[in-house]
Amino acid sequence: MPSAFTILFFIIVVLAVLTWFIPAGKYATDSAGNIIAHTYHTVSPHPQGIWDVFMAMVIGMIGDSKTEGAIQIALFILVIGGFLGVVNKTGALNNGISAVVRRYEGRERTLIPILMILFALGGTTYGMGEETLAFYPLLIPVMIGCGFDSIVAVAVALVGTQLGCLASTVNPFATGVASATLKISPGEGLIPRLILLVIVTALGIWYTMHYADQVKKDPTKSLVYAQRAEDEKRFDISEKTQDTQPLTKVQKRVLWLFGITFIIMIMGLVPWTDLNKHWTAFDTFTNWLHGIPFLGVLIGKDIPALGTWYFNEITLLFIFMSVVIMFVAHMKESKFIDAFLKGMGDLLSVAIIVAVARGIQVIMNNGMITATVLHWGEVGLGGLSRSAFIILTYIFYIPMSFLIPSTSGLAAATMGIMGPLGHFCHVSGSLVITAYQAASGWINLITPTSGIVMGALAIAHVNISIWWKWMAKFMVILFLVTCVFLGIAAVL
Fold this sequence. Notes:
Low-confidence stretches: none
Number of strands: 2
Helix content: over 70%
Structural class: mainly alpha
Order of helices and strands: HEEHHHHHHHHHHHHHHHHHHHHHHH
Strand content: under 5%
Largest sheet: 2 strands, antiparallel
Shape: globular
Radius of gyration: 24 Å
Number of helices: 24
Strand order of the largest sheet: 1-2
Mean pLDDT: 86
């Protein structure tokens, strides 16, 4: 498969060609810029050429009068990469997982739900994925050593994180980018996503533990039983399961700061007063803080209350907490800068892909065909019930997620179309985002276009056909449960 960049660029080219054939049109909008249904009318065509194709990616980053740029999102992605780079430099995340494994040595069956919940929390909050590749060399020997197999080890981290991504709550790469595209708060739809997170995580834990118990009771039930002896030798089970790397005091402090950072981000993004008009504690506290002589000015008069934050505020949060961790970890300035820039470099492709994906919206908007596509959707989907629309949206995103494994790229490329279509069918934008995330998480459990999946299986020496065989029943169950959930959520 070509890279996500190539696929997105190809889509831009195809859409540019379509601007020569699809009638141009537009909708009337209200004072807030929202499209008014049933006001579509045709306008003079504006076909896009070669210059426009390449310019679309530039405008996708900086924006123009018709399309908002992705610079705000891209900068946040780079900063959170820098933050993770600083945290990883301290070794806190790796040793934190190791500490949990050691604590439950001899009780590894209990370890399965604990670790899967931790990995799911990582997936739902910050899109944990590639980071799990560092844990497999530790998890595989532990799981094989206690009588399970390498599939269980892969499932703990891979299924755990991707189920978290499937039900992303405030994941900046999925929920954040999609919400920004629809110009809604990432906190909208939080409660239904939390419910979905509990449901799918519980299903994943049950499915993994059921298989683990079967293998423990009868090792021949393992789908990789033929290579068990080779695995025991390959992963040096006896030595690796005895390896100890206790957390230092500094790493413990860093982990606390890591968790506090995401708690503050969540509290900042959740629209508390929208959920309940009486939940004004953060507004009251902020006003009180601003009123303190000197201190209020010293801290900053422009600090917004928690619950009203957006990308600018949470970007600042991660920059600030990176600096705090630098001092707590006694990290030299040069090492801090290196770690921060390296972390930014790790996510540079993600930041750029958001701009490239936004170029799709640029071509459609400048070619004046976005409204026409929406009009077709308005006519074609107008008779559908809300449940039927959201389930079809979920199904639509499954092949799209295969073609564009990047959650942020997929959101930036498509949400500008699917969000307004949901509006025509009286489905909230937040539920459309939930459907997109669910489809992306579902396909990224098995897709060969995902570096996370292929990397994990390569480390574990598990053939992808075996992984598909093991996942088959779970994928069917997960698909049906998600469809039912979305269908019910649409009518509530």
